[in-house]
Design a protein that fits this description.
By secondary structure, this protein is mainly alpha-helical. The protein is 77% helix and 0% strand. Keywords: Amino-acid transport, Membrane, Transmembrane, Transmembrane helix, Transport.
Length: 461
Amino acid sequence: MNIYLIIFNIAILLLLIGVLVYMQKKHVSFSKRVFTALGLGIVFGFALQGVYGAGSAIVQQSTQWFDIVGTGYVKLLQMIVMPLVFISIVMAFTKLSVSNHLGKIATLIIGLLLGTTAIAASIGIMSSLGFQLEAMEIPSGEAEQTRGQELEQKYEQIQNLSFPQKIIELLPANPFLDFTGQRSTSTIAVVIFAAFVGIAYLGVARKQPEQAEMFKKIVDALYAIVMRIVTLVLRLTPYGILAIMSRVTATSDINTIAKLGKFVVASYIALFVMFAIHLIILALAGLNPITYVKKVLPVLSFAFTSRSSAATLPLNVKAQTTALGVPEGIANFAGSFGLSIGQNGCAGIYPAMLAVMIAPTVNIDPTSPSFILTLILVVTISSFGVAGVGGGATFAAILVLSTMNLPVALAGLLISIEPLIDMGRTALNVSGSMTAGVVTSRITKELDVNVYNEETQKLEA
């Protein structure tokens, strides 16, 4: 009997995909199809949970089939992340308009990413203190204890590394290994390697212009091919979001989320406040924040559902260039740097909130100015090299908690609501990198304001 119910559930998903295909044939806008997919996925997922139960075998087996569409789509995006990061950074160097003031652009982007992370950490601290969150209030079951043990094991892998050694870990000893994404710092390592290639190009361009011109043509060709692949994959976005959201809502433990509601609410209030600060920064730069919201919502929706800043990179860069008027070079820098530096949600708000919650367990006053200032500094510095995939926040939390001499295992207490909070964190990460790209373009007077202010947007080719 179960097999027929599973087939029935799959048939409904295929029917919903058919609705999205019909909308595409009717030339419904990309953003409308994305939000339709998001809504259909939520309704379908809750319907499955209401009929069968979140932990039922039918839901588990049905969502495994859904993953062919959802997880398959995310994997296709992840497939092109490293090539896109590498070729995007190299191409940024080959663009004359960017290379003329490359140092200023890189400094602005990194400064904005780190500055907003410091602000995010402050907001996380205030949210935890305002809601009086304490780790001792969270019930610890078998799942939480197991998660705590896993975090301790990860901590053991890095605890013997001094801070200088952690910085050394960012360097690409074997760039080909980093292209496979095997290390937690692989993304920033690829960025560094690409920067060396770009700097080498600038040197060759001065001394051997013919060879440099040939290399530039090769880079342009590779970039065109990679971006064409990006376009092909991005066309699958509504279907991927539908499947991902159906699985998330069908398998979420609503009862557990309700029990830890205060922690969820505190986290999302902090995330929304930080997003509002992004909009304030844009307004201070003389740009309409409402226009920004309208144009980036499809990108943030995918980041929310996929929980992967890396998988969102193609959409991130595409939106910056085609919808917000950011030059390709700056968009590539901001998007790529934002994967590993200064993630406002995962590396800013989350570790800061955890540290404040856990501090009382070891008799540390989380309201003391010295603790707060030290925490903000540690969070900001530790935001270097955070992986832009699901789990990056865990790595950031381990670094911050261990540096602050707080028990790492207690971070496992939030495992039951981790996916829900991670969705909002990832969306904020992506918004932070896009804000950095737009503001940097504005400061350097390279932003195409006409494109930014256009009512329409094109995220598809």
